[in-house]
Amino acid sequence: MLIPQAYAAPITNPAPFADLGAVVTAIVPAIFGVGGLLTFSFLMLGGIKYVTAGGDDKAVQEAKKMLTNAIIGLAILISSFWIMNILEAVFNYNFI
Hints:
96 residues, 0% strand, mainly alpha
């Protein structure tokens, strides 16, 4: 035999996730965590700006706008969590 026989290992999936659902299941809790942390941070920052405005109307309006936007973001985060729970119930798949 002039050419030696080659042996190869079977090729396996190098990705740690089997399908797209597994990727979504891994990413969604992190997104909710980051969203909650950002919401808390913006609420705190808006509150600090509001307290330290010192009667400056422009600073007070800016702080109120920041607080309003943080509350809107919190509402979006909570509603998306509810939507994910509804999708879990409808499709019988655990996203979170």
